[in-house]
């Protein structure tokens, strides 16, 4: 029993010290990226030296991206290229062949728990694609870091644990986004079938036209503004669902409900639920447990 207490005290001291160092590092502009490497059973941190490089890659139709603690930016540019700024011991592995670009951030299996890294250097991977190219297939997986995609024609999947996702001025096919913690924002885009899920964070669509939209969040708001979709399913556990639709109300069947909150359609209060079945081919299903459901039609 005594030995157990001693180890408990030591663990508490180490944890307190780690938290204090993390606070100092963060206050000085650092990032939370201290990790435990289970493969080699040791604590790892960023090296002090960062490397910045730009590499030209072959033309690709498929992008496979696997990163951990890094920001990712994809946009149009003058050439097919990948540039990055990372710790020197974490240079990504980049392979390009047969129309497929694969980028692996070269980070070993580890568990991130805190950091006292005080560097202000921002880690990133930037991918540029020449304009006027055909639609690309993206398979993006990240652990910690933001993702921003601008002006690209693409489809595929994006899976992230912690970080924000922003997609601007893109022409998309079918796209599925799965995010654990962070906000998802889409602006001035067109798409086929959109499926967006989040555990903690807001989902916001502004001026997005798509064939269908299925989106849900456990803790956070769903906001759709000045957008159009034939079929919409929007849910939240704790948060509001707000849909401002470019469409004719008479063409939509609707099923809307909330447990704690109210339902409003075109600013008319409907109580805690509202159902409308006598409509055309379009549909809206909106539900939240704790929060309001607000639907407005702009045509």
Give the gist of this structure.
Helix content is 9%, strand content 60%.
Tell me the overall shape: globular
Query: What are the secondary-structure elements, in order, as H or E?
Result: HEEEEEEEEEEEEEEEEEEEEEEEEE
Q: What's the total count of β strands?
A: 25
Largest sheet descriptor: 22 strands, mixed
Distance between the termini: 72 Å
Q: Indicate the low-confidence ranges by residue numbers.
A: 21-32, 36-40, 109-119
Mean pLDDT across every amino acid position: 85
- The quaternary organization reads as single chain
Structural class determined from secondary elements? mainly beta
Q: How many domains?
A: 2
Instruction: Summarize the amount of helix as a percent range.
Output: under 10%
Question: Can you count the helices?
Answer: 1
Q: Please tell me how large the radius of gyration is.
A: 23 Å
Report strand %: over 45%
How would you describe the overall organization of this protein?
The chain has 299 residues and is mostly beta strands. The chain has 2 domains: 140 residues, no CATH class; 136 residues, no CATH class. The protein has 1 helix and 25 strands. It has a 22-stranded mixed beta sheet that branches. A 3-stranded antiparallel beta sheet has the order 2-1-9, with no helix packed on it. β1 and β2 form a beta hairpin. The termini are far apart. The relative contact order is 0.10.
């Amino acid at each position: 029993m005594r030995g157990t207490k001693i180890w408990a005290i030591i663990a508490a001291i180490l944890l307190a010290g780690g938290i204090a160092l993390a606070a100092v590092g963060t206050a000085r502009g650092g990032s939370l990226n201290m990790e435990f490497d289970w493969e080699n059973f040791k604590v790892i941190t960023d090296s002090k030296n960062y490397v910045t490089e730009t590499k030209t890659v072959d033309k690709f139709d498929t992008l496979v991206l696997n990163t951990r603690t890094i920001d990712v930016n994809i946009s149009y540019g003058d050439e097919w290229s990948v540039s990055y700024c990372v710790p020197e011991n974490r240079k990504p592995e980049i392979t390009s062949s047969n129309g497929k670009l694969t980028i692996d951030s070269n980070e070993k299996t580890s568990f991130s728990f805190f950091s006292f890294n005080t560097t202000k250097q921002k880690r990133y991977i930037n991918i540029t694609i020449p304009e006027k190219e055909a639609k690309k297939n993206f398979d993006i997986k990240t652990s910690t870091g933001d993702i921003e995609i601008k002006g690209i024609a693409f489809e595929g999947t994006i899976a992230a644990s912690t970080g924000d996702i922003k997609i601007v001025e893109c022409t998309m096919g079918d796209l599925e986004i799965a995010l654990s913690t962070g906000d998802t924002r889409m602006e001035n885009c067109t798409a086929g079938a959109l499926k967006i899920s989040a555990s903690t964070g807001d989902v916001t669509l502004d001026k997005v036209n798509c064939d269908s939209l299925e989106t849900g969040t456990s803790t956070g708001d769903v906001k759709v503004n000045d957008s159009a979709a034939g079929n919409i399913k929007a849910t939240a556990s704790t948060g509001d669902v707000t849909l401002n639709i470019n469409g004719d109300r008479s063409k939509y069947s609707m099923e809307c409900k909330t447990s704690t909150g109210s339902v409003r359609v075109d600013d008319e209060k409907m109580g805690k639920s509202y159902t409308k079945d006598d409509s055309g081919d379009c549909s809206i299903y909106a539900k939240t447990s704790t929060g309001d459901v607000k639907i407005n039609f702009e045509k």
